[in-house]
Every structure is written in structure tokens, then in C-alpha cells.
Amino acid sequence: MLKKKTSLFIALCLATISLMAQDLVIPKLIGAPVIDGVVDPVWDEIDAVNCEFEPTDDFGDASIFEGWFKMAWNDTAFFMLMYRDDDDFADQWETTLADWQSDRDEIFFDVHVDTLADGRGASDSQQGSSYGHYQFTSIWVQNATEWIGMPQQWYHNAPFYFGYVRTGDSYYTEYAWPFTSLTIDQAVLPGTDETFQAEAGVIFGLQVAIGDVDMYDNPTDETFRKWIKWVDEGGWDDMDDAGHVELGSEEITVPSLTESFLAENISVFPSPSGDFIQINGITKSSNIRIYNVTGGLVLSQDNVNSGTRINLVDLTQGVYFIRIVDGITLKFMKN
């Protein structure tokens, strides 16, 4: 513990991206990563943006020792990969905490291009209007027995896509936000399109916060939450001081196995897996093929339906691709 706390202190002192940093240019993807929490190779080509601990007077250091995100876009959506290293992870699936009492990511968008300083925050969207300000938050699971689908944003009910993989203290989360979900307040920006129009050079507002609730604190008291953030202001109440993100013109081609982030709402559960997986969301009996990372076929099974268990006992630990013969390819990890 002492070694990790020392590493945290050094990392905070030497961080190259400070809480005052406001500008970020994100590359454009040709294709898209699969949103499943397993890190696609394309993310290795994108720089990480470090988040920093926000000091508090009352509750000491966070138990997050490293936190960062990577971000990109294509013609249809924003994408984000987020990482945390947290040795006291509070997951409501395991602890029966409410979602706000648990560790989670919070991502805020302001898509009012050219009118980013408008005095509004994500909380405005509780009124049900298309304010152009959003708070998205990860909810790690949706009930106590299984992962059953993609969560929805709290206040504007804007659909987004979300997947995660937890291995020990490390946690990767992937997000995709379709532009069709991000509507514009046309009273604020007359003459604009109703939904966010993405093109190189466009700037939008962003705040990223990684929440930490340690179980040795009082997790039922929301004030015990601690944060590491990209920029120290902008979000719930007022996004005027949020970071400014530009859609860059640099293009990165995604490998062919990860062309669709939607994956037709079909998901692999669990990931990481043990000796079996099941595929949820298949609407008809399908044939599946599993490949290793070098493209070798390692398992075939026909007549698979939603919820059918696929035995992995003969597979070694690692990352695999599962191809449904109808054309969907997903990725999973076996422990």
C-alpha cells in the first residue's frame, strides 16, 4: 500500500496533463472499435489523457493509483476507452450499494458548438428538453445475476453503448455515443441541425471524472466520494469551464475484425470468462466460430441460441474473437 501511495504522489507531481489543461484534439477512425471492454489494437495508436486527483480536506487520498482515457470519433459516434487502477473497487453488484454510492465514471458533453459558454450544466437536462448538455455514467451491472444489456444515460435518456473488463485491480471501460443521441437546443443555436454534426475542426465541451468510493469510508454518504478528473471544473452545474475537444483530421484505420461498434446489440457474457460463455441477443439459431488472436480457428459450434452455453474448458487464457456466421464478430477474454 505504501509503495502504491508513493507512486500516486510521484505521478501527480510529474503529470504532463494538468487540471488546467483545456484543449484536446482527437483522431478520426475509419471503422470503429467493438465496445466490449477488451482493448482493441487501434487504441494503442491513440495517446492517453491522464486524469488527476482532486484533493479534498476531509477524506484523504483516493485509492485510484492511475486513471486515464483515450478518445476518438468517426462519422457516426464518439468513442472512449477509460482505465482505472483501484485496489478498493466498490461495485454495487457485489456490495448492494446504490449506483451513486459505487465507483463509476462520469462523462459530461456540451455539444452546443460555438456557444459553449452558455451557463448551463448537465443538470438542466432533467427538465426533459434537448439542452445539448449530457451526463453519462457507467453502471457496472444491471442486476445481481447477469449483464443484461446497455445502460442508458440518466437525465436525457440518450442511448449509448458501454462495455467493461475487470482483471484484479485494473478496469477498462469502453464507450460509444452515437451522434443521433446528442440533440441540439435549436433555441440556443437557431438554424442548426437537430443532432450534433461531426466534421473535422468542430469543438465541443467535455469533462471526464472517475469516481472513487472506498469501502473503509462511509459509502452510503455521497460526500465521501473522491474524484480524479480531466480539468477541474465543468459538469453538473455549469459546463462553461469544461475542457474543449476538437475533432481532428488525423485518420486511423480500424482492423477489419472491429468494423461495427453496435454489434447488433449482441453481447458475450461473461468477459473475462471462465470455462464457458454465452451469447446474448441472438434472435435465431446461429453457427459460431472462435478464433485466437493470430486468426487460427480454435472452436466451432452450430445451432447456438441466445443463452446457449459454449464450453471453453479446452482453451488457454487469452483474447479471442467469436464470429457469428451471420456476420457479427465480437471479442472476449478467457481467464
List the helices and strands and how they pair.
Blueprint: H1 2-14, E1 23-30, E2 49-50, E3 52-53, E4 64-73, E5 77-86, H2 92-95, E6 105-110, E7 133-137, E8 161-167, E9 170-178, E10 203-212, E11 226-230, E12 243-253, E13 267-269, E14 276-280, E15 286-292, E16 297-304, E17 309-311, E18 318-324, E19 328-334
Parallel strand pairs: 1-12
Antiparallel strand pairs: 2-4, 3-11, 4-5, 5-9, 6-7, 6-10, 8-9, 10-11, 10-12, 13-14, 14-17, 15-16, 15-18, 18-19
| Oligomer type | single chain
Radius of gyration from the alpha-carbon trace, in angstroms: 20 Å
H/E series: HEEEEEHEEEEEEEEEEEEEE
Structural class: mainly beta
Helix share bin: under 10%
**Which percent range describes the beta-strand content?**
35-45%
Continuous helix count: 2
Task: Provide the low-confidence segments as ranges.
Answer: 1-21, 142-156
> Could you tell me the number of beta strands?
19
CATH topology label of the largest domain = Immunoglobulin-like
CATH architecture of the largest domain: Sandwich
Q: On the 0-100 scale, what is the average pLDDT?
A: 76
Outline type: globular
Distance between the amino and carboxyl termini: 26 Å
Instruction: Describe the sheet with the most strands.
Output: 7 strands, mixed
CATH C-level category of the largest domain: Mainly Beta
